[in-house]
Amino acid sequence: MAEFTQKVLEGFRATGAAEWVAVVAGVIYIVLIMRRNRAGWVAGGISSTILTVLAIRAQLPMQAALQAFYVAAAVYGWWSWSSPARTPQIGVWHWKGHVLALAACVLPSLALSWLLAREGYSAFPFLDSFVACTGLFTTWLVARVYLENWLYWIVIDTISIYMFVSQGLMVTALLFVIYLGISITGLCTWWQTWRRAQPAP
């Protein structure tokens, strides 16, 4: 335990300004998204731009690709939430869509992990690939304001914490711990809002 604590403290001391900016912008992003405020997409774009570079340096290529996609998704999310000019309404997606989407995430992840393992490009070939593929789908769920996006983020955040801690990016791992907590809160908040919007039986 003492060794782990020391590693965490050393990680904090070694953290550069850019990573701290990514953390702050990332927290602002998810809090605003939880409130269905489109300004969150701007903060998310800034955070993801920085995290793209950090993931490349940490030998997590699929994480880097995922963060780069998040930058593009931030533009789409801003546009999607801008029309019509009102608070986006929460919906739920049919279960068959989730089954197909998960299959579409796992299968490419297996192929990508094989390639990454063979070339030695990733410290965590399958996890890196799975988080990247699932993150693409989950970002689409967010942009479409589907309730289930928070369930996926909870899984993604948990895996990401493990990968970033293992690679010594303690502050980035802390960001995902915060993400995890907010994702759980977001799930509860959106669920309550969605339930209130349902017609009385």
Task: Sum up the structure in keywords.
201 residues, globular, 8 helices, mainly alpha, 79% helix
What does this protein structure show overall?
The chain is an all-alpha fold and 201 residues long. The radius of gyration is 17 Å and the shape is globular. The chain has helices spanning 2-13, 17-34, 40-57, 61-80, 95-119, 125-143, 149-166, 170-197. It has one domain (2-197).
Largest β-sheet summary: none
Q: Assess the beta-strand content as a share of residues.
A: under 5%
Which structural class should the secondary elements be placed in? mainly alpha
For the residues shown, what is the average pLDDT?
84
Radius of gyration: 17 Å
Give the helix level as a range of percent. Answer: over 70%
The total domain count is 1
Helix-strand sequence:
HHHHHHHH
Summarize the structure.
The protein is an all-alpha fold and 201 residues long.
Q: How does the SSE layout of this entry go?
A:
Layout: H1 2-13, H2 17-34, H3 40-57, H4 61-80, H5 95-119, H6 125-143, H7 149-166, H8 170-197
